[in-house]
Structure formats: C-alpha cells, structure tokens
Amino acid sequence: MKPILKYSLITLATLSVIGGGFALFYYSIPEPPKGDIDYALASLHQASLSNAKRYSKEKYLKAKAYFDSAMKQWNIQNKRFILSRDYQKVSYFAKKSAEIAKSATSNSKELSKNLVITVKDKIDNLTALVSNMNNLFQRLPLPDEFRKKISKGKMLIHEAEVAFKKGDYLESSEKIKLAEDLIMDSYKKTLDDLEDYFNSQPYWNRLVKSAISNTAKNNSMAIIVDKFARKLFIYQNGSKKYEFDAEFGKNWVGRKRLKGDKATPEGIYLVKSKIPANKTKYFRALLLNYPNSEDIENFNKEKATGRIPKHAQIGGLIEIHGDGGKGTDWTDGCIALDNNDMLKVYKAVEIGTPVVIVGSIADFNSIAMSLNLKHNQIKG
Questions:
Q1: What phi and psi, each to the nearest 5 degrees, are found at residue 50?
Q2: DSSP string spanning 3-56?
Q3: Per-residue DSSP letters for 179-232?
Q4: In angstroms, rounded to a whole number, what is the distance separating the alpha carbons of residues 243 and 236?
Q5: Can you tell me the distance from the alpha carbon of 152 to that of 154, in angstroms, rounded to the nearest whole number?
C-alpha cells in the first residue's frame, strides 16, 4: 500500500471515530421539555384570560405553582453538567400545570356562565322586592336601623348592576349578596312584627262590622278609621257615605299606651266635642273621649307590671283635625285630614258620633298578596 493511501485511510478512520464520538456526545445531551413548558405557559395564559384568577382561584394558583416548580427544576438542571441533566421533573411539573390550568379555565367559564344567570335573577328579584317594599315601608314607622340597612342595600344593588354591565359577574355577585343580607334582614323582621300586629285583625273586623251594623239598625252615623289603609270612612244607615285619606301619629302601628308615645289609639270612642276654627290651630277639630275605660284599664295594668314607666301619664286630647294632606304621619297621635275633607266631616257628624279606630280592616294575607310580599321572597 502506498504511504499516501495509508495515511488517508488512517485520517479518515480518525475523523470517523471523532465524528462518531461527537455525534454520540451530542445525542446524549438531554433535551429540555420546551414544548411542555410552552404548552403550560399557554394554558396558564388562557386561564388568566377566562378570569380563573377569580372564578377558579384555587386551581389557578395550583397550576401556577406547578409551573413555577417546573421552571425552578429547569434552572437547577441547567446548572448541572450537561450530560447529568434530567428534565423529567420539569416535564412532569409542566404537564401538571397545563392540566390544572385547563381545568381552571373550564371551571371559570362554567362558573361565569352560571353567574350571569344567577346574578341577573338575583338583581331582578331583589329590585322587584325593594319596589314592593317601598309601597309598604313608606307607610310604616320603621326603626332607623332598618332604614339605614335598606338604604345601604339599595346602593349595593346599584353597584351590583354596574358591575354586571361591565361583565364583572363575581363582583356583581358579591355586591348583590351583601344587598340581599341587609335588605332581607329588615324585610323579614318587619313582616314578623306586622304579622304580630295583625293578630288583632279579627277583633278589629268585629268592631267595624258591629259599628256599621248599628248605623243600619239605628239610622245613625259612625266614623271608621283604618290606620293601615290610611283612611277615614263615614258610614250612615249601613252604607259608606264618605272616604278620606288620613294621617296619624308617627308611631301609629299599635295602640296608644301612654302620653308622648306618638301613637294613635285603637278602639271605640265617641266625638266628645266639636272645636270650631277659632278654637283650634288645626282648622277644625273633633275631640274624642280618649282615654276610654279600656284604655285606662290597660294603662293601669301595664304600669302595675312595670311595662311602662312608673311616672308615665296616659295622655289625652286625641282629635280628628284638619291641616292634614302632608303625605306623612306627623301628629302626636291625632287623626289629621285635608282641610276640605275635615270640613265635610265636621259638618256631617254630631257630638256623640261613634268613632271606631282599628289597625286594619283587611287581613294580613290580603295585604301581603296585594303588595306581592312573601316571607320566602328571594330565598335560594
């Protein structure tokens, strides 16, 4: 063999060995799972776009933690000798991150879709309830605490509507839940108190029927006052002759118990005297015989049992008088009418005319139905 050929063969063999060694070295280097990392990152991005940070927060954070672990492992492996690197954990963490992020996205979309329906229903129902409540609550002497809660609740409903229109259904859901808690608390307590008050309605009904029946029997006249309906009726010979709007004491729900309670009494009274224009500051007035014997008996019982203060007085000077028409309950316990209406009443009745004052002629269920009020409204 010629030397030059021999030399060439040796060189070729050497190069082949070197090339093979280099190829073996190159293909022995572990490949980082870049595809897994990219997929996990894209899945997290998709979860973020679907608001998983809020709607599926726990899963989103878990997916993010797996991704962080994957990146941490990648950095650890990259610091090792190139042939000693092991990216299996990186791949595992990245795949878990992608899997959980996809689940968070799905949950987020489903929850968001459900919230749209749930929150919209709740906003609509609560808005309708507040509208119905306004018809009732405007005529009731509610505690300040209730009025503040209802006012705050109305403000939260508005904020919930604004958030809903912006597509922030979670924020809207949180607002409407707070509004519901505030409003329903006052609503239920008020209905409970009213139901207790209306336990006397059968008795009131009997008083009214008896008074009307007596006007038919005796060809006489009677005044019927319905506090809840805010009405004063005049019946003559068994038939209703007049019907007027009336205003009462600020704390008209319940019977009058003592002087200064600003309640309008309930029971059977008589017109004790007629007070002309020059003798009253309220246009004209009919003085009633409050307190009657039943009022005095109740007052003494409550005083004896300590339910009213020891030095309390029973009060008096309860009238049907003019200067009404203010659209609110403002008297100290009297019944106020518009002056034109008062003039008709003043001319129609005589001293001794019976005056029956009741909480309500209608029963509670009829009133609740007419105002579309239910105890379980909104629930669920």
A1: -90, 15
A2: HHHHHHHHHHHHHHHHHHHHHHHHHHSPPP-HHHHHHHHHHHHHHHHTTHHHHT
A3: HHHHHHHHHHHHHHHHHHHGGGHHHHHHHHHHHHHHHHHHT-EEEEEETTTTEE
A4: 12
A5: 5
Name the burial class of residue 365, with classes exposed (0-12), middle (13-18) and buried (19+) by CB atoms within 10 angstroms of its CB. Answer: exposed
Cα separation, 13 vs 35, whole angstroms: 38
> 308, 302 in Cβ contact below 8 A?
yes
**What is the mean pLDDT of the segment spanning 293-300?**
93
> Of 62, 151, 158, which Cα lies nearest the Cα of 107?
62
CA angle in degrees (0–180, nearest 5) for 305-311-316: 100
Contact between 150 and 186 under an 8 Å Cβ cutoff? The reply is yes
Q: Span 88-114, mean pLDDT?
A: 92
pLDDT digits (tens, 9 = 90+) for 111-166: 888 888 889 999 998 998 888 888 778 778 888 888 889 889 999 999 999 999 98
Residue 183 exposure: Cα atoms within 13 Å on the Cβ side? 31
The HSE-up count of residue 44 (CA atoms within 13 Å, CB side) is 19
Structure token pair of residue 301: 């019982």
* Both structure tokens of 90: 């990186």
Q: Are 217 and 230 in contact (CB under 8 A)?
A: no
By the 10 Å C-beta count (0-12 exposed, 13-18 middle, 19+ buried), 13 is classed as exposed
- Edge-first strand order for the sheet with 267-275 is 239-245, 231-236, 221-226, 354-358, 267-275, 285-288, 319-321, 335-336
Mean predicted confidence (pLDDT) in 30-59 = 90
Pick the closest to residue 356 from 215, 262, 217 (CA basis).
Answer: 215
pLDDT at 374: 66
Of 19-33, 121-135, 362-376, which one has max mean pLDDT? 121-135
Q: Which two structure tokens, joined as six digits, stand for 154?
A: 């109305």
Name every residue whose Cβ is closer than 8 Å to that of residue 287 and which is 6 or more positions away in sequence: 271, 272, 273, 274, 275, 317, 318, 319
Would you list the DSSP string of 60-117?
HHHHHHHHHHHHHHHHHHHTS-GGG---HHHHHHHHHHHHHHHHHHHHHHHHHHHHHH
